[in-house]
Amino acid sequence: MNISIILAAGEGTRMKSKLPKVLHRVCGKPILEYVINASKGAEIEKNIVIVGHGGDSIREYFKDDSVIFKTQPIGDNTPYGTGFAVMQGIDCIEDDSTVIILYGDTPLITKDTVSKLINYHNSCGYDGTVLTAVVENPTGYGRIIREETGNILKIVEHKDASEEEKEIKEINSGIYCFNGKLLKYALGKIDNNNAQGEYYVTDVISILKEEDYKVGAYIIEDSREIHGVNSRNQLAFSEEIMRNRINSNYMKQGITIINPEHTYIEEGVKIGRDTIIYPGVIIEGNTEIGEDCVIKQNTKILNSIIGDKVEIESSTIEDSSIGDSTHIGPYAHLRPNSRIGKNVKIGNFVEVKNSIIEDNSKAGHLAYIGDAEVGKNVNIGCGVVFVNYNGREKFRTIVGDDAFIGSNSNLVAPVIVKELGYVAAGSTITKEVGEGVLSIARAPQVNKEGWVEKKGYKNHK
């Protein structure tokens, strides 16, 4: 059995935040979620997360039966260190298991790296394996000292390294793979007789080496994967790398992203091939976008389903669906539970909320459509308002197929405009408009001759 122990108990004081460090988000997901997903993606059967500070919030977010939470005690007299944290999961480790130790603040780690480390550890017959990286500037990191055979001789901390050892660029990532039985054995032998008074996992490597167990090292291909998040600056670095990684994957699938550096797409969004995405676009949550769409600048889409050949320009779409060949925007807003049909036009400054608009209908500009059912081939003129709220309750408006709603009209719900019903411009409709009926609901126009001269306004130019 493969087991992961993910250390997520750190306070994260440098984040200067009330939120636990591992719940801060990178491309829409908590940092810890990426680590858990990498572990699960590597087909690790048992995932143990060690929590401490903010543990209740972390447990509340990850309501997942496949994750086992263990709490690291917190207090003035409680020892600390990576070794002590790993000890909290010791009762979940089987003797015949392979255990990988990961960190909850390294969101860039991938399932491929986790798999490769475990496979390397097992295929080479190591009792302990360190994930290492080769970096240009190793200052501050523990150096990997190897034997002639390539096995690890020792890990030397930077402050203890000789000048020759400081020239070594292979460093300790802090991620390890162990035989389960030997890990438990070595954890029982480590102590905190050091300057910090802490228990370190690094000491497990030393103990195994001293007792002639076989200890190896696997060099990671991309050293950025071991980047930890301890500050807002490091969070921004991880965000940039993850965003570029996600966008690169979409482009490999046949999606055009004109400027990847200025396009934000969360992992898990589905996008069809030959869709074009312009700069400034934000796509979040459980969104699905079809093929041959054009998503133009400064559009935001959240938890929505977009059909094929849809064009959206500078608009906001929330928890809604849009049918094929529909045009949205610019500056339109689809609020939650809007269902837009095929070949529909929702134009400039049109807001739709909790409404159905069926195929081939149009609302070209400056309209509010709330709590409505609009049929096919309906024309909604400029300045139309679906008056859905009386101050206490919301009511629905129904507009039948082929109806025409003239500009600057108010439809006061609950009200029905039947099929082929016509509403004259400037009307306020409070009663049903029958099939094929023209409804005019406005006061007669009154022209008062000589009014300007009587008021003395004539010379005020």
UniProtKB/TrEMBL annotation:
Region feature Linker, mapped onto this chain: 233-253
EC number from the UniProt entry: 2.7.7.23, 2.3.1.157
Ranges of residues in domain Mannose-1-phosphate guanyltransferase C-terminal: 318-408
Cofactor note as given: Binds 1 Mg(2+) ion per subunit.
Superkingdom to which the source organism belongs: Bacteria
Pathway: Nucleotide-sugar biosynthesis; UDP-N-acetyl-alpha-D-glucosamine biosynthesis; N-acetyl-alpha-D-glucosamine 1-phosphate from alpha-D-glucosamine 6-phosphate (route II): step 2/2; Nucleotide-sugar biosynthesis; UDP-N-acetyl-alpha-D-glucosamine biosynthesis; UDP-N-acetyl-alpha-D-glucosamine from N-acetyl-alpha-D-glucosamine 1-phosphate: step 1/1; Bacterial outer membrane biogenesis; LPS lipid A biosynthesis
Region span, Pyrophosphorylase: 1-232
The keyword Iron belongs to this UniProt entry's keyword annotation: no
Catalytic reactions on record: alpha-D-glucosamine 1-phosphate + acetyl-CoA = N-acetyl-alpha-D-glucosamine 1-phosphate + CoA + H(+); N-acetyl-alpha-D-glucosamine 1-phosphate + UTP + H(+) = UDP-N-acetyl-alpha-D-glucosamine + diphosphate
Entry's localization field: Cytoplasm
Sites where the protein binds UDP-N-acetyl-alpha-D-glucosamine: 7-10, 21, 81-82, 103-105, 142, 157, 172, 230, 335, 353, 368, 379
Cross-referenced InterPro entries: Bifunctional_GlmU, GlmU-like, GlmU_C_LbH, GMPPB_C, Hexapep, NTP_transferase_dom
GO terms of molecular function: glucosamine-1-phosphate N-acetyltransferase activity; UDP-N-acetylglucosamine diphosphorylase activity
Domain Nucleotidyl transferase intervals: 4-222
Active site: 365
Binding positions for acetyl-CoA per the UniProt entry: 388-389, 407, 425, 442
HAMAP family, A to Z: GlmU
Function summary: Catalyzes the last two sequential reactions in the de novo biosynthetic pathway for UDP-N-acetylglucosamine (UDP-GlcNAc). The C-terminal domain catalyzes the transfer of acetyl group from acetyl coenzyme A to glucosamine-1-phosphate (GlcN-1-P) to produce N-acetylglucosamine-1-phosphate (GlcNAc-1-P), which is converted into UDP-GlcNAc by the transfer of uridine 5-monophosphate (from uridine 5-triphosphate), a reaction catalyzed by the N-terminal domain.
Binding partners and assembly: Homotrimer.
Protein name: Bifunctional protein GlmU
